[in-house]
């Protein structure tokens, strides 16, 4: 698959997990594509941790408002009825359990649902930002990520990078399939028709449990 096709496959499938009226926080990068693929009739309320609820689509080039940016510094818009507030209020919303779904990327995730998504060895990093709060406070945590990084598995038996949070990931969606974190391990629930179970397992360090009713990834 081409890079853009991979991103579309992942974002389109993640969008199917969202329900009308959900309050959703999107991580930077691939997760920001998810609203483009919402099923007809489903409207979600997008929250950005730097202080806005009611986030709209990315503005057209030349129409950016420097006062409207997301947590990653990207230009955004505000829909009618949107509200802006300070960081303390924003994290009160997150920590208070008012975010239904948090969609994040990952450097590593393991079979216990532990996530590492903020420190790349050898690179300067300002810290994990609000990811820890989003993992602990959201009702459901979905990872929207490519299955491997330069051919190396990202779904591991145990994370080796510094953790963002332990045991908080509920679902992983990659270009290869849909996986659910359970007390018994990672269950492969859906598989993309371009891949076999053997290929998915070969690209995954953790041992996958294949669901008896394994479905084709939509």
TrEMBL record:
User: What SMART domains does UniProt report for this protein, alphabetically?
Assistant: CoA_trans
Q: Which UniProt keywords apply?
A: Transferase
Q: Name one Pfam family in it.
A: CoA_trans
In which domain of life is the source organism classified?
Answer: Bacteria
Give the SUPFAM superfamilies listed for this entry. NagB/RpiA/CoA transferase-like (SSF100950)
What EC number(s) would the UniProt record show? 2.8.3.8
Q: State any single GO MF term.
A: acetate CoA-transferase activity
Q: Does the keyword Transferase apply?
A: yes
Q: Which NCBIfam families match?
A: pcaJ_scoB_fam
| Family the entry assigns | Belongs to the 3-oxoacid CoA-transferase subunit B family.
Q: What is this protein called?
A: 3-oxoacid CoA-transferase, B subunit
